[in-house]
Each structure stands twice: as C-alpha cells, then as structure tokens.
Write a structure and sequence with these properties.
This protein is mainly α and about 220 residues long. Helices cover about 70% and strands about 0% of the residues. Keywords: DNA-binding, Transcription, Transcription regulation.
C-alpha cells in the first residue's frame, strides 16, 4: 500500500509540474489575463475535468505560478550573495543576480511585477515568497547604521516599526525607509529595462543598472 501510494503521489507531482510548465509556456503567448485551464488541458491531451482535480480554478493555478516565480527570483538573489566579504560587494551581487533572473525569465517576471491581472486577488500565500529578495538585501544591512539626514515622518516611522517586527529584523526607521526606496529602484530599473522604457535613452541599460546599484549601495550606507 505504501509503495502504491508513493507512486501515485510521485505521478501526481509530475503531472502537476507538467501543468505548470505548460501554463508558463502559454504566459509567453497570451499573458496572465489570457491563461485558460481548458487551453492548458487541451495542450496536454487532458480533458478539462481531469485538470480541475489538480487546479480547481484558474486563480489557483495563477497563485502557484506566482509563488513559484517569487521563490525563483528570491532564490536567485540569495544564491548571488556570497554570504561573506564586503557588504557593498554582496549588495551589488544580489542586484545583478536578481536582474539576471528577470532577463532570463521575462514572462514570469511580468507575472509578478507587471500589470495587475483583472479579477485576480493574490492570497496570503504569496507574501512570504515575495519578501525573499528584500530579506536578502536586509541581511547585508544587518550591521549597517544609516545616519538620518532628516527626521522620518511619524506615519512612516510607525510603518517602519511594524515592518521590522513582521520581518523579525533590527533596523531603524531611516534604514528601513532607505531600503524600501532601494528595493523600489531595483525593480523599477529591471521593469523599465524589460518593458522597453529605456529605449532611446540608456538602451542597453547594463551600465546604468550597474551605476544605480552602486549609488543605491551608498544611499543605504554601504
């Protein structure tokens, strides 16, 4: 019984992966808004009722794809960090590792950082995976103190304190504020690059991205 159950579980895991792989291929053709369980089933030679046993709705499939994408880009950021050496070098490595993944997987990047999907509301399942890149950057800043040039506004101070508690980190409100600005700059620069916003200005954007990474390192105190 145990061997049979294990074989069934293995077969289910393999088919689940095939379904997600096919869905990712379709993202490149129709985008997230056009993803259809029926179309995925048809390409896999399945009846749609059989596919619904694995993913009861399009939104459930989208959530799995989103979580996978967040985990993949988070893993890329974490693996890019050598974990030792100068914090500034670690910061730059994370920035470039994150961008490299996005450039290699543009459609998955668009799924998580592109236009919102009409009618889809991301569940709580996506929060932790979505935090992995930011947490990789936080690790680099653990022992860094930012001297505030201006007082942090009370509302932002309260938000920063809430965020540090949620993430389980120790950081002052100015450090948190600057990290959020740098995080925004990181994904803003990647999105501008992938979605063609730099055409006619800094295209290719390699030199500008590298310069931005260095300036943001200085900005957060590295």
């Amino acid at each position: 019984m145990t061997a049979t159950r294990t074989a069934r579980e293995r077969a289910r895991a393999e088919l689940t992966q095939e379904i997600k792989d096919e869905a990712r291929r379709q993202l490149a053709d129709v985008g997230a808004h056009g993803l259809s369980l029926r179309a995925v089933a048809r390409e896999l030679g399945m009846v749609s009722s059989a596919l619904y046993r694995y993913f009861p709705s399009r939104d459930r499939l989208l959530t799995d794809l989103i979580v996978d994408a967040y985990n993949a880009i988070g893993e890329a950021a974490e693996n890019a960090d050598p974990g030792e050496g100068e914090p500034r070098d670690r910061w730059l490595a994370i920035w470039h590792g994150t961008r490299d993944w996005a450039r290699a997987h543009p459609h998955e990047y668009a799924l998580i950082y592109g236009s919102p999907i009409p009618g889809y509301e991301a569940p709580q399942d996506t929060v932790a995976p979505a935090s992995r890149v930011a947490l990789a950057l936080v690790k680099v800043l653990t022992n860094t103190t930012v001297r505030a040039a201006d007082e942090v506004p009370p509302e932002l101070r309260a938000q920063a304190e809430t965020l540090t508690k949620a993430l389980g980190i120790i950081a002052g409100p100015e450090t948190v504020a600057r990290l959020l600005m740098a995080w925004t700059q990181l994904f803003g620069a990647i999105s501008f690059d992938l979605f063609g916003q730099y055409v006619g200005s800094v295209d290719p954007a390699d030199a500008f991205f590298a310069h931005s990474a260095k300036r943001m390192a200085e900005f957060v105190g590295l």
